[in-house]
Design goal:
The chain is 31% helix and 0% strand. It has 64 residues and is an all-alpha fold.
Length: 64
């Protein structure tokens, strides 16, 4: 992407990221292991680790 995109608020910024495929919609990281959009990738990781769900899932916390 080139240029700057102005956003009115955080919700608009996240919505833009979701629409462009840069991120999943928001979800509760305490109660949900991942968003439904990530289900295929999670399933593949679990299969790659022989059913072990103790794999590393790198994340960042975006401070607003």
């Amino acid at each position: 992407m080139t240029g700057n995109v102005a956003f009115i608020n955080t919700e608009a910024w996240v919505r833009y990221g979701v629409e462009k495929g840069f991120c999943s919609p928001s979800y509760c990281s305490i109660h949900d292991i991942a968003h439904d959009d990530d289900r295929d990738e999670i399933t593949e990781l679990i299969e790659d680790f022989d059913g072990d769900v103790d794999f590393c899932w790198s994340v960042v916390h975006i401070k607003i």
